[in-house]
Amino acid sequence: MSRAKGVEANKIDTLAKSHMPALGIDLGGTKIRAAAVRDNQIITESQQIPTPDGRDNIIDGLVELVNKFRTDVLAGVGIATAGIVNGDTGEIIGSTGNLPGWSGTQLKTVMESRTLLPVHVENDANAAGYAEARVTGLRSKRCVVTVTLGTGIGGGIVLHGRLFRGSNWAAGEVGHIKIAMENKRLCTCGLFDCWEAYGSGRGLIQTAKDLLEGVSDEQTPLASRTTELTTHSIFAASADGDLMAQKIVERWHEHVSHGLVNLAHVLNPDCFVITGGLSEFIDFRLLEDMVIDHCLPTVGDSIEIRQSALGGQAGIIGAAQFVIDELLHLNK
Amino acid sequence: MSRAKGVEANKIDTLAKSHMPALGIDLGGTKIRAAAVRDNQIITESQQIPTPDGRDNIIDGLVELVNKFRTDVLAGVGIATAGIVNGDTGEIIGSTGNLPGWSGTQLKTVMESRTLLPVHVENDANAAGYAEARVTGLRSKRCVVTVTLGTGIGGGIVLHGRLFRGSNWAAGEVGHIKIAMENKRLCTCGLFDCWEAYGSGRGLIQTAKDLLEGVSDEQTPLASRTTELTTHSIFAASADGDLMAQKIVERWHEHVSHGLVNLAHVLNPDCFVITGGLSEFIDFRLLEDMVIDHCLPTVGDSIEIRQSALGGQAGIIGAAQFVIDELLHLNK
Fold first, then answer.
1. CB contact A165 to B (< 8 Å)
2. How many domains is chain B partitioned into structurally?
3. Are residue B196 and residue B252 in the same domain, yes or no?
4. Is the ipTM of this complex over 0.90?
């Protein structure tokens, strides 16, 4: 084949692949979910399994999920996982409390040899950020910062449509910026005063315990249940008009705002997108006011905070979209 | 002229300009300095004048400085100034306490009409960061973050050799990330607990006052001089072995480290460069240890903190280099 014909064939091949779906997999601490994705949208029913214990069992689970989608023609498999990930080699290079023993896993290599498909592995918050920054209205922006508020806090920084990964794949580890300085609250990472220790679900529960100390049952029914507090019980009490619960939720908004204020002064993004399980409990008007109040005027003027457009699907979509975009060389 | 000849002539014109020096001007609160720059180096004696009072007088002073270099053929003039600057229009869009009434100045337009030369206006910390990231060994890096420690704290973020400016020209306003959350210390910006309120020269003096409260003359001679403390008197006492002064300087290092820790988790840079008047008093070994101690392992592993390679010339060099690079379309 002549060079010109070869280039032409490559173009056709690439074009074909760009119309093929990729499988997106979101690997979390409690469950693994998968669905086929095309054009930044899920196009099949999703499948899920509980996250097995241990590295080998997790990999078996991932392969099992891929096999459920074998009836579709797939461009490849994208896996969003907790932990810091080398995006070139697909190795998990930073550990996470939610998946013990996961660090060191050569996930891309193992999965490619087991499935014979191109595999891309990405940090889950990065994958979510990549998907969120591709929705209508955000694609052309200079800087979109997606913050995942869940059990922990993650971040995904997308600059001019490309994920920013930093020098050692750890950019966007925003849960571990420090918002206090006196070793007041221990984070699960072993360091003190991380944003995650205040703004995550665990942080909210700790804030509730702190504020409920010395408070009587008569002031709030939450006072007698401090050992069994959940984020949902706090938000439910707040919605029911419990003044103490409302105070706790407001303090949590303040904590969330502190991290966003810091990110705003570093990156001055066009837009923050808030996703993750706790994002549905955010009062966006209140949060935006709190952030603007603590920003320099020029920084505050351009603050926009949006709720996720993709909800819990962002990780699946972003992971799959990475595979498609890598085939098209869009993310280089 | 045919189109092909026109393109050729443009190339020759661009090539000629790339070998011409540009004038770099650093406009500070107390003095204005200028020198001609080529290939990221100062190539003439620098000239300086005291910063005049008021917008019109400052502009007259800038024009006067440009005229002192009229004997050189100049590609253009780059001006590094305090404040947030619209890099396209050259308007000062964010004010600064050091140059009252400066916000709103259409500096590029005014200076181009007064000098008939291409003018680029840039935030001073951005200009310094741009120059520092161009020195040998850093040019090819993904992310270089330059932090200017002086009366205030500024930042310049260079990604793949290009300055990152954010959505509203305010990226890198790192002096105003919050490192505490209880309205403990007022910053000159009017907000509380900014990094600048702790890590800048003013912050160091405030830390000294706080730590010297209730301390007797016998413990340290600084105790009787709290109303006339300067950064230099504190560093001098520390160098002389004054234990209290050493404690103050160590606390200041901690404060500086807090901001770097936050930046490290957001940007995961290849390298931090510390510049500004206070950078010469930094114990880089101590600072690096403090930063690594408060970082996730994957983030801490790649921490490198360097002293400025260009010293007080970085602003002049960066501002001038912008003009040259814009002519060569290197910074688009």
1. yes
2. 2
3. yes
4. yes
